[in-house]
Design brief:
With 311 residues, the protein is mostly helical. Among the domains are: 91 residues; 116 residues, Alpha Horseshoe (Serine Threonine Protein Phosphatase 5, Tetratricopeptide repeat), CATH 1.25.40. The protein contains 15 helices and no strands. The N terminus and C terminus are likely disordered.
Length: 311
């Protein structure tokens, strides 16, 4: 009996943390499959429901599909069918379809944690593409993220930057519209900073400024980095870029040791100083040796005179 109660308690715990919150009772089977981590089976059944006229207008099956594909992404690839080429891309696709179905966004708020995880992981992919200068892939990835967070100006600006860098002229319009909105948000004392997308905004500001500078448009590069500096006054990378573009020389930090800044030079100077000390020591010892020799010569001369004896 105790074993049965423990099992029921475990099922209740799983149910409370692994479900589409706010879902209808008709989707209990999807809930059970998801709760027991049968993500592939859950995705298959949810997809079948989206093809059924009875359920295809409901948002829940699409949300289950998005959540299942997100989890499938972290499964061992050896256990997956070949059809799962890019589960995160599929997750974003179904998350967008869900949002279109959930007009009142009633379920979205109750499942915000999932959407935050999906955006965070997807933005890591954007960062990886951008660092390898795969700007077309970065732009495509972030455009899918923007679809599930269409009011996010940070994402819109970053999308515009990566589109421009991939020679998509539509990016310029996105930048033109998003940048003033970003500035307005950060000047608003009541603005709640989006911790998930802010790093992407900072990275895209720096990337855009560097690209403008490399393209010979120094004035525009300075304008972008000035806006960035005004928004993120404490960011070291932005401050460093700002100082370079504005030819501002910065003083050394008080706690910086010279040998940490220019170790090779300081070691060389130390060795050189040691050599000089040895030479100075030899020179200072030389007069002592000369005086000693002179004293010995004088002693030798005196010893050569006949010794006077007294009677």
């Amino acid at each position: 009996m105790k074993t049965l109660l423990s099992l029921l308690g475990l099922l209740f715990t799983i149910s409370s943390i692994a479900q589409v919150h706010g879902g209808k009772e008709v989707y209990a089977k999807l809930f059970d499959l998801y709760a027991f981590e049968k993500y592939e089976d859950c995705a298959y059944k949810a997809e079948r429901m989206t093809l059924n006229d009875k359920y295809r207008r409901d948002p829940e099956p699409y949300l289950y599909l998005a959540m299942c594909y997100y989890e499938i992404n972290f499964m061992d690839s050896a256990d997956l069918d070949q059809e799962y080429k890019d589960p995160i891309k599929e997750s974003l696709k179904y998350a967008y379809k869900y949002i279109k179905k959930d007009k009142k966004m009633e379920i979205y708020a109750q499942n915000a944690e999932f959407f935050d995880k999906l955006k965070s992981h997807s933005l890591l992919r954007v960062k990886s593409h951008a660092e390898r200068e795969e700007y077309r892939k970065a732009a495509s990835e972030i455009s899918r993220i923007t679809k599930i967070d269409p009011e996010n100006e940070n994402l819109k600006f970053a999308q515009g930057v990566y589109q421009v860098l991939s020679r998509n002229t539509q990016g310029a319009l996105l930048i033109k519209n998003a940048l003033p909105a970003v500035e307005k948000n950060y000047k608003n004392p009541d603005y709640e900073v989006d911790q998930i997308t802010e790093p992407t905004l900072i990275a895209s500001l720096l990337t855009y400024s560097d690209a403008l500078m490399s393209g010979g448009d120094k004035d525009s590069a300075k304008a972008i980095i000035t806006i960035a500096k005004d928004i993120f006054q404490e960011n070291e990378k932005i401050t460093e870029e700002y100082n370079i573009l504005h030819n501002i020389k910065t003083a050394k930090k008080e706690n910086e040791r010279p040998d940490e800044i220019n170790g090779v030079k300081m070691i060389y100077e130390k060795h050189e100083s040691d050599d000089m000390n040895e030479e100075e020591k030899e020179e200072s010892d030389a007069p002592k040796e000369m005086k000693k020799d002179q004293k010995n010569d004088q002693s030798s001369t005196n010893s050569g005179e006949p010794e006077m004896k007294s009677n």
